[in-house]
Specification:
The chain has about 220 residues and is of the alpha/beta class. It contains eight helices and eight strands, in the order βαβαααβαβαβββαβα.
Length: about 220
């Protein structure tokens, strides 16, 4: 099963990706993971990516696509994969299609986890992180026993800079701008499935499995 997973920040994409990876026994591959692995292994594409990442610059498309090819050529992708964070543009989507043809693979489904913007803002702005151990909480969905204090190590909880309201709104606007053309692109291809991400986590996963036809 070869999948792409789309979801706005706060949509629960990471949670669903982990469940899909376990259920279908395929790797969850994020753009960040691909870059880190290629750089750690000092592959030619990894060395090229490091030139940009280490300077805080965006990695060019040709390098990103090269790293995707390296990653999808690994043996653990033989039975499928879940791509997360790629493609981000129509050009990348078209390049991925060519790449998959070269690898004798085909894209089965593109899964969009759809969540109302108000709910996304509530999820993200309510998140709290521990300064010491990195434990994650939410003021509504997973509050700490003592407000502002980590249950695990007793340290102070804080709001990440990218979780304040202004940053969250910018992140969501950027996602919508990037993703809308891709949603339309894959809709025309006939491989897009959309699930309601406003539901309970288990119900979202059950809906994804239903949309995929529970193929394993």
């Amino acid at each position: 099963m070869n999948l792409i997973l789309f979801g706005a920040p706060g949509a629960g994409k990471g949670t669903q990706a982990l469940e899909l990876a376990k259920s279908y026994q395929i790797p969850h591959i994020s753009t960040g993971d691909m870059f880190r692995q290629a750089m750690a292994k000092h592959t030619p594409m990894g060395e090229e990516a490091a030139k940009y990442i280490n300077k805080g610059h965006l990695v060019p498309d040709d390098v990103t696509i090269g790293i995707v090819k390296e990653r999808l050529s690994n043996s653990d992708c033989q039975n499928g994969f879940i791509l997360d964070g790629f493609p981000r543009t129509i050009f990348q989507a078209e390049s991925l299609e060519i790449l998959l043809q070269e690898l004798n693979k085909k894209l089965d489904y593109v899964i969009q986890i759809d969540v109302a913007q108000d709910a996304l803002i509530q999820r993200l702005t309510g998140r709290r992180m521990c300064k010491r151990c990195g434990a994650s909480y939410h003021i509504i969905h997973r509050p700490s026993k003592v407000e502002g204090i980590c249950d695990e190590c007793g340290s102070e909880l804080y709001i990440r800079k990218d979780d304040n309201l202004e940053s969250v709104q910018v992140r969501l606007e950027t996602y919508l701008l990037q993703t809308k053309p891709l949603i339309e692109y894959y809709q025309k291809k006939g491989c897009l499935v959309t699930v309601d991400g406003n539901q309970d986590i288990k119900k979202v996963f059950a809906d994804i499995q239903c949309k995929l036809g529970d193929k394993k």
